[in-house]
Amino acid sequence: MTAIDSKPEETPGLDESHGSDTPFQAHHFDTPIQQYESVKLGMWLFLGTEILFFGALFALYTILRANDPELFSYASQYLNTILGGINTAVLILSSLSMAAAVHFAQRGRKTLMLISLWLTLFGAAGFLGIKYFEYEHKIHVNLNWGPSFYYPVDAAEAAAVGEDGQVSTVQDENARAAADESALLSAERSTSLPDVPEPRLAPMPPTDAVSMAQSAIGPGGLSAVKPEEKIKAERAAAGEVTYSDKPHLEDQDLPVNTHRFFAIYYAMTGLHGIHVVVGMVMIGWLILRGTKGHFDNRYYAPVDLGGLYWHVVDLVWIFLFPLFYLIH
Amino acid sequence: MDNYLTWTKGVASWVFTLDHKRIGVMYLLGVLVSFLVGGIFALIIRTELIAPGQTIIEPETYNIMFTLHGAVMVFLVIIPSIPGSLGNFVLPIMLGAKDVAFPRLNLFSFHLWIIGAVFTVLALLFGGFDTGWTFYTPYSTKTELGGVVPVIFGVFILGFSSIFTGLNFIVTVHKMRPKGMTWFRMPLFLWALYATALIQILATPVLAITLMLVGLERVFQIGIFDPAMGGDPVLFQHFFWFYSHPAVYIMILPAMGIISELISVHSHRHIFGYTFIAYSSVAIAVFSFLVWGHHMFTSGQSALMNTIFSAITFSVAVPSAIKVFNWLATLYKGSIALNTAMLYALGFIFLFTIGGLTGIYLGTLNVDVHLHDTYFVVAHFHYVMMGSALIAFIGGLHHWWPKMFGRMFDETLGRIAFVLVFVGFNVTFFTQFMLGSHGMPRRYYDYQPEFASYHLISTIGSYVMAAGFFLTAAYLLHSLFFGRKAPANPWGGRSLEWQCTSPPPHDNFKVTPSVGDCYDFRAVHWSEEEQGYVVIRDEESANLPPAH
Amino acid sequence: MASRAHAQHRTDDTHPIVGHLVPMSTLVWTTLALLVLTILTVAVRYIDVGEFNIVIAIGIAVLKATLVALFFMHLWWDRPFNQIVFVACISFVVLLIALTVIDTKQNAPTLYTGNPARVQEVLDAKAPEAPITKQTGLSSPG
After folding, report:
1. Positive or negative, the Cα torsion across B494, B496, B499, B503?
2. Domains of chain B
3. By the CB < 8 Å criterion, does B194 face chain C?
4. In chain C, which residue's Cα lies nearest the Cα of A82?
5. CB within 8 Å: B305 and C103
6. Which chains touch A (3+ CB pairs under 8 A)?
7. What percentage of chain A carries pLDDT values higher than 90?
8. Residues of C60-86 as b/e, b for ≥16 C-beta within 10 angstroms?
9. ipTM computed for the complex
10. Which terminal Cβ of chain B has fewer Cβ within 10 Å, N or C?
11. Which CATH architecture best describes the domain A29-143+259-325?
């Protein structure tokens, strides 16, 4: 790549009109200022996409919370506010050291810049370390996303369910929602009582099991639908674990679908965590280049852009912290 | 003759090139191959539907076929077609720049496109997917076919390819314009690409995250979209269309930009209403974010939002109509040359008008309840996506083909192929308007005998259209090796790309070009010696009265 | 052409050629403000002000984000278009949130299919006479 890349710079008559101030000026830019402003605008546009990337998740969060506020105020108590607060402070301080790194890079202070970058890297590692303990604890007590929030149906219980070998969580409730309303209501109230013997759900009628696929394809007869027996046999062969609808949390006040809170919690903090990891790789790269002496007060754009990225990571966390940890 | 094609040799010099022209050509190759693949899927679908009952494939295969046709055509062909290939090739030259702002990012974006395409193909090996290109939940989280996760990952990557292309174009237009190239001297194609890039940047991330959530839902059952786990499938549709409606404008806006160029150049007439066309591009880009709910009128969306989205949908007609009227006004009293490219441009106006007006039908709430998920919708979006976006792409390809490869193609064959494509297209899809209004649902494998004659006509039309495209492929390939050498300016264009040689040199311009009004054709004269047009700059032409 | 922020200081060792140098004192003061706001937002969590808890929490978060964007990210001194990009992207997020929330709130009763007791509660509380009470967990087209 570099061999092809470097050829234009050797082409006579192409680059002579302007003397490059730094060895890192690309051939198609006329001046270092044009290059700096271009990369800066490019970075801001990229950060814009990052904002929209997280923005969709924030939208998801808002909708879930607007429709199930009590779910959020209930489940939020399982998050550790102190650890979250410490992590917020760690990220803010690492943002300061990142801003300081840019400051020193602009002034051409190589050693101070490198120290600041190292501090930022330690901050990022500290953040992830604390995050690891949080995740580790939650997964240990089964505060999970999806079906694993609930107890698995062991072999005996699965047999008791009958011939229905499907992943059976709360999905049957939907089938029943279409059924008799009053029967539904009483059945539903019973599900919130922890001492009701497992499993409470009736086996799903065969027609319902395939209705989803059918409705998406069309009315019966127009397209062949995979037989119910075949689906069951495949699931069993794949050795899938099936789950009951009994949560690990022994709490009578547990709202329905509490697993959704943890789903969105893991999705948002997880995606943020991935960005922290990417940020660490980037800071590491900056340290490497800084050590080689690539940056000075004429050319420091990578540090600047890295700083912008790192601040966006901080910015997202600034919203995640109150939205998850500080629900009254 | 040293040009960008012969500048360096070897496969690596192409695969790892940083030259926007070579990247554009590679995109073109990729897009055309994908178009062939998607087209073959389409022919299989049409052949299956030629008569009621099973004709050539199983129902399950049929579901996979129409899904692949949609996914390949949308994500691999139409979205990258104009920005990726023609845009990459033409944008910096039109602007008078040496390259796009970030050549490495440009190459990276192409490599991402390749990876995304590979994952889409891999999905077939994992058993295919039959969700439709829209991946609607809960079906996409439940279907037994194993190709869903690979294709979601592929589309996720393709999304980033699209984002990086858009980012590159915005920065290039902002920061790489040479002296004299002001915003309102830019060719309208650049305005269109700029507006497209805005959408790519703002909308695509939402699709990426939504597909990621569908993947998580499928693998971990996180309960966001799946109602069985307490999720909300309508929410998926909101998120999906927040991207995918603007994505429709990612397809059509650059097409409109191409048409502005083609109409003006081939009728040798100053574009009418330059600022209106320029601003309407940006207006469409903004409106495109406010109408996504019109895909969801019958999905359980609330009555309030249905009304709001329907009302805003109508308002999109305004900037679209501004463009159409301005093109017609440009043609008025022009000296129209019915070159192949111009025929495609005129075809575009016809087809886009039909496609756009039927969009108004579908944007009307009560009408949509009747027409939703019928062949009427299929015909409508084929008129817009294929009849408009792809026809403009093919037209633009003919327009810039001599510039890209330095060879002239056979105009007579080009016109014959256009007639085949145009007639075939209308026979195929106009019939489907009738099918839909009579109640034929889309995506069905089988149908009642009363629809049989329509389906038969539609299938015959698709064969005619396919013949047109194969003829096009034949004479374009032929021209690469046996075509007449192209002059620098075969059509009489005035924008900067016609001032450099065909094909352009590696660094685009030997001397920095002078920027003028790129729609002022008075100084453009035919030269027998060059067998092309030349711009004669003299004292008189500098003092001519305004062009219109 | 360059904005006020981009006055050039050539070859002065303590200043960059391009961009704007933010003094360390500004950065430190910003950090202190952010930390104080963090403590404040945690403190407010334990005070019950009803609906305003979320408003205050979001308000403080917005304030903190603004500080980060303006001073850490140099947006205060940056070119206008970069500021527009930032604000425009946030507006589009707000647009997405606003329209989807309006829609799901309109449809709220039908969302509680997993929780019929709650459906009944919402229906009884909000629209006891409305025809929508005839629906049980199944959505209707509007």
Report:
1. negative
2. 11-542 (1.20.210.10)
3. no
4. C42
5. yes
6. B, C
7. 39
8. bbebbbebbbbbbbbbeebbebbeebb
9. 0.92
10. N
11. Up-down Bundle (1.20)
